[in-house]
Specification:
- There is one protein chain.
- It contains no helices and 20 strands.
- The protein is mainly beta and 243 residues long.
- The strands form 6 sheets. Strands 9, 11, 12, 14, 15 and 16 form a 6-stranded mixed beta sheet that branches. Strands 2-7-6-4 form a 4-stranded mixed beta sheet, with no helix packed on it.
- Strand 14 and strand 15 form a beta hairpin.
- The model has no long low-confidence stretch (mean pLDDT 88).
- It holds the Pfam family Ig_3.
- This is Ig-like domain-containing protein.
- Keywords: Disulfide bond, Signal.
Length: 243
Amino acid sequence: KVSIKPDQHVFRGETVTLRCDIDGEGVTSWKYSWYKDGSDSVFSELQEHTFSSVTESDAGKYSCYGAERGGSRTSNISDEVTLTVSDKPRAVLSVSPQKWLTEGDPVTLICEVKGSSTGWTFSWYTDTVSSDYSKRYQLLSDSSRGAGGNYTVSSAALKHTGVYMCDAKRGKPPYYTWYSNKQLLWVTGVSPPVSLIISPSRTQHFTSVSLSLSCEDQSNSDRWRVRRYTDNKQLEDCSSSRW
């Protein structure tokens, strides 16, 4: 029987091990023969054959066969097992039930590796901007509690507003995916209805013409500020409401 670790579907650069197990009662030592894609050529005689950095050329159908060392017994050739090798994956991040939240709402960030679910451990990050305006990804202090792929906040607070990402790793040495897409979580306090006022009021605006934004409510408009989520997926405070 052929088994493949970490999975039959792996990614370029991963460490992959093929193992041949033979159920032969009374046989203490086997000589193993490995075959690929139906070829008669033996490419390995080890019980475990490891690709330290697998490539697309290693993909294929593998089978093994055993012969008793110093004896006459042989095994049947195993069924073929297919190894698939794909490009290095990017983790995929989604939000449930929604990314626009009020304080106290529950929310779950879900990180996945599409097409592969075996053996992954997940980490969680926020996208931050330092004082010199350089971007960096900051590992969440409690990232480990989302290691299974779901990072749940049972009661969202204002501090949870931000841009989030994840990645995944598996194997020894660890193999990492690319960082995921970014997802915004926006948490607001319980408040009276607020209106966003755009001036001038029209459906189309131009880059060379200034634009004024303001937030207003019936109680105290000075309490509100304008923040923006830009095309580069960065959450920013606006130093001025005029752009």
